[in-house]
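Sample log: M20/M25/M40 family metallo-hydrolase.
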Amino acid sequence: MSDDSLIQLTQDLIRIDTSNYGDAPGPGERVATEYVATFLSDLGLEPTIREAEPGRTTVTALWEGRDRTRPPLVLHGHLDVVPAFPEEWTYPPFAAEIHDEMIWGRGAVDMKGIAAMYLEAVKRIIATGGKPARDIVIAFFADEEHGGRRGASWMVDNHPEDFRGATEAISEVGGFSVSVGGRRTYLIQTAEKGISWLRLVGTGVQGHGSLVHHDNAVAHLAGAMSRIGSHAWPLDITPTSEALLRGAAELLGLEYEPTDERIAEIVAGLGPVSRMIEASLRNTSNPTMLDAGYKTNVIPDVATGYIDTRYLPGQQEQVLRELEQLAGSHVKIEQYIEQPAVEAPFDTPVVHKMIAALRTADPEAIALPYMMMGGTDNKHLARIGINGYGFAPLMLPDGLDFSSLFHAIDERIPISSLRVGADVVVEFLLDC
């Protein structure tokens, strides 16, 4: 089947500016939602649009499968993107131009290209009169790029019935290929670190900048941010990460040993994704923003900073206590966005179906699990008993540093990868 519609879908979605500025209204989320709803309606499905706040919309639709006695699977994505500034880009970020056999634009990777790939797979199956193996709940959420409070989290809290008792889900940031020891290896995301976005509030005594001060809010906060930012979190291998490292070691011809030196050697052998995998092997805490004062010669009584903390499964409280110790007595830590760590099994029938689908396009495909250092809307679905997996199958060109393209200037995705991915998703949905 021609993939012209796949390319057009990707370009159409990128050209809708759905930049997520956090608490401010997204400029195009409703426009994108209505585009997807129309697409699904044209296929004979009956989509529902739900609005958490004006303009912050999510679309869901039930696609009936051959075996309706089984719990549904959720096929989901998000339609918002992080902002992009045209002056920084080689090509306009919302033009979706094609150069070097790639579609360039904000959201090409995260995740409008993947959304188009999913929608194209649904279209191809319906066009041939087919049905998926079981019921599929199709969902495209708002607000994923700012924690999902107006998207997946809101849907789980207010409309869990839309998910119809589903037990498994697939979405972004998994299933893409990397070269490990010369073998094409697909990393299926089965776990995610937890997210704690923290506000640090330093307090002191306000006064004139020319005087001697021993209780300075800015100094207290700066010390806390420095200690937290330079803290060396120890290596901590979870079951998911151990399975990845053991599999990678075998491909690299190395003996697996849980030592810092051997782990570093294995991670280095993962090439372009090594930094992403490195971050999944320990807790992390990074200062990201500062806000204090209003005049150079006035010492403020309050200074505020922000920390992006990502913790391993089961370690939320432990990490928070450690950060409180590092912050010190003059700095209070407040949580303002919290998403749990999640971990799903790899040796399970739905993953076996993913691997089988991959091998229809790449017979020598090797698949390994991995833990994502960030987060997806699967975290919210986990609250209603849905095991989420990252399965956006992309056969990537060797040497492409795919992981660095997320949220990046000049974000782009190979057309050939989308083509193969759509084929694999079709095979998976027919067998899932």
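Observation: Residues 415-431 form the longest helix (17 residues).
Observation: The CA atoms of residues 48 and 266 lie 46 Å apart.
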